[in-house]
Design a protein that fits this description.
By secondary structure, the protein is mainly α. The protein has helices spanning about 5-25, 30-45, 50-55, 65-80, 85-95. The protein is built from five helices and no strands.
Length: about 120
């Protein structure tokens, strides 16, 4: 017997809820948590004393991927309590190259975009 659209959607919501609960119980972070940890790690790296001093002296801030990954991993494991191996795998999956990274229309230009000035 065919199900209604509402029944199908309700079933899908329950299925996803169960999947998310099982992943959380296994210590696996979701993609939003991984992305938030990466953003926090980049923010921390940008505001670290070495980078501030480099910027003040006219140098370029030096932010390494290893520092970002290490800080993001610490956020996921130490602060949020996720499994270390699952967190490492989730970080690597989030930062892994994907086919769309090679599409010319997907990659932003590295040239500065002109801005329009609105002088009154």
């Amino acid at each position: 017997m065919p199900r209604t659209i509402a029944e199908i959607r309700r079933h899908d919501r329950e299925r996803k809820r169960a999947q998310r609960a099982a992943a959380a119980a296994a210590g696996i972070p979701n993609s939003a948590q991984v992305h938030n940890a990466i953003v926090e790690a980049v923010s921390y790296a940008a505001s670290a004393g070495v980078n501030i001093e480099a910027a003040r002296s006219g140098g370029e801030p030096a932010i390494t991927m290893s520092a970002i990954l290490s800080a993001a991993h610490r956020v996921l494991v130490d602060r949020l309590g996720f499994d270390a191996d699952a967190s490492r795998a989730a970080l690597l999956k989030a930062l892994a190259p994907r086919p769309e990274h090679r599409w010319p229309s997907f990659v932003p230009s590295h040239a500065a975009m002109p801005t329009t000035r609105h002088d009154a």
